[in-house]
Amino acid sequence: MRAVVVTEFGGPENVRIADVDLPEPAARQVRIKVAAATLNPVDAGVRSGVFGGAGKQIGLGWDVAGTVDAVGVASAWSVGDEVVALDYGMVKPLGTHAEYVVVDTDAVATAPTSVDAVHAATLPLNALTAVQALDLLELAPGRSLLVTGAAGAVGGYAVQLAAHRGIAVTAQAREGDEELVRSLGAAHFTTGGEGEGGFDAVLDAAVLGAPALERVRDGGTYVGVIPQAHPAPVRGVRTGAVEVSADGARLGELVRLVDEGALTLRVAETYALDDAVKAHARLAEGGVRGRLVLVP
Q: What pTM was computed for the model?
């Protein structure tokens, strides 16, 4: 089968399509015939060597939507099931940017019925990151939350999920994104820079660090999206960062929110699997609103 891999670190030109063996599911695993797989910034990080793995063939891709086509022993899924899943792992021989992928059965959820596979593929990594970050914040309804990078994929999901919980959300984004983030449920909008303190919590999807921490009230909470990269506590502010984990049950809850219309899935562009280099080049240009999706 075809799979997107890197064998040497560098820019988009280092991405290549390899012919690899079809993976076989072990116990409590399923094999998914990939219908669509999202390209995320973490894939660019893997490609450029941020997470190590020199000298290895590394597969790219974390998100997948597709059809179960083989199951291992003790799998809860059946051949023919339409599913989505998160294939967690920085350095792995194969990822979801392939014709088939094997994942743990507990990482899988039934696919949304209200959207196509291309849109469904944008859900797992970014929405799970957002909801698990909100869980760390432990905000009750009515509390105030600043979401930085609110027009991005993680930030956009965070705005919608927090608003759905009854949290008062202020979205920080570029001026041209105000209409977008308000449509996602933000009660207030800011381009940043003005004022300090005041918010019960900040979800720092833009990875601003200390400047975002300054916006939290004394005794509030800050959560970032890069593990072990959050700023040190100050003024009694609790700080931390989410490390996303594959969770099929939680992903199923997010799927239900999609089908209920509470979560918006945003696709910027689609690319054929063979055009993965072009997709990486587009991601490197920046300014993408929604996700780039590869289709085998």
A: 0.96
Q: Which residues of 74-83 are buried (b: 16+ CB within 10 A; e: fewer)?
A: ebebeeebbb
Same domain for 62 and 25: yes
Banded pLDDT at 195 (limits 50, 70, 90): low
Q: What is the CATH number of the domain that holds 24?
A: 3.90.180.10
Residues 6+ apart with CB under 8 A from 170: 144, 145, 146, 147, 186, 187, 188, 189, 190, 199
Would the pLDDT of 85 be above 90? yes
Domain count, the chain: 2
CA distance 66 to 248: 15
Phi/psi for 30 (5° steps) reads -135, 150
- If one counts every other C-beta atom within 10 angstroms of the C-beta of residue 219, the result is 10
Nearest-angstrom CA–CA distance, 52 and 275: 25
Domain limit, last residue, from 225, 241, 257: 241
